[in-house]
Amino acid sequence: MRECLLWNCISLVCFDCRIFSCFSLTGVLDDCLCDIESIDDFNTFKIFPKIQKLQERDYFRYYKVNLKRPCPFWADDGHCSIKDCHVEPCPESKIPVGIKAGSSNKYSKAANNSKELEDCEQANKLGAVNSTLSNQSKEAFIDWARYDDSQDHFCELDDERSPDAQYVDLLLNPERYTGYKGPSAWRVWNSIYEENCFKPRSVYRPLNPLAPSRGESFYTWLEGLCLEKRVFYKLISGLHASINLHLCANYLLEETWGKPRWGPNVKEFTRRFDPIETKGEGPRRLKNLYFLYLIELRALSKVAPYFERSVVDLYTGNGHEDAESKALLLEIFRDTKSFHMHFDEKSMFAGDKKGAKSLKEEFRLHFKNISRIMDCVGCDKCRLWGKLQTQGLGTALKILFSEKEIQNLPENSPSKGFQLTRQEIVALVNAFGSCFFLI
Q: How many domains does the structure of the chain reveal?
């Protein structure tokens, strides 16, 4: 029997046709002139192999994040204070970058019976952040901090000077299934869609990612929105699809003798994305992921002048590796510029200046609020990747709306008009790399 694959994560879903329904995405995406097949070819043969190499380099594999920030909107009741719910501090020879997933001495309300308790235990075990870092890395990070700067943001950024902000090795903490589900996860997505996406309260749509759409009325309404508000919804939906795809593609299939076996879960993928199972809803979600990819691809092509300057280094202290990292990044930028079907961000906020400015600010504040909601995620590893992907998309939006500032950058001195922190750069590259991946 042929092994089930998710090729390029979503572009071709090739199941054994004797057992599963086969489907693939084709055609032109809405709100742009790009077709899915062109994105697949471009990503597979030009972008993905280089992005993968870049993500493995020290500059891009370490992400500084504060996983202890309290939820600003409701009581943080998503954690279970039971077995494996904590991220234990590293030994003396290691750096303690993990955090405790919960501080209460009681079980959460979600663990009142044995089945829920078992689910909660598994979720906390799988969702724990691997906090292993070397002393050598710790010394390097102190030096790295001198190279960061910032300006206005689309995201609520972590205070990197906070004692709770710690570096995490992304290669040791891949985005995958954690078992995080239930009321806490529902509450997060409900707040994101209902309170931050642009829509009248009279429009109802199930927010459960597994629930089918209630007819075409929702999409009829969506198409009636202005371009900017449609783009906002599609980006959030694409982000949601990316998270669910990582869950399906890197699923805990079996755990025997303490040795977990990870791999694609076809049943879970079908439940979330198959057009028959979702009554046509799944392919829409996947197309929104393609749209997210286009937005971040466009941002990479637009930000190239910032990095092409000699004053900008991808600094880790290893001169040879830093030079290779920058050369590889610039090569990726050249590739992104060669793509001939970019999303045209100039079509956004192009109305009267006063109205466009107001809408742009509303757009920014809505997205910034979503970044704050990520501090309400009750699973450490989910929170880590939720914050990273949100910051990556926020950085992409910041780039797209700063074209004039980027064009006027001085060659040999830092810019006061447009700057990126290390964390924004790391988040942008890793978020873009998370859109499409090969298994």
A: 1
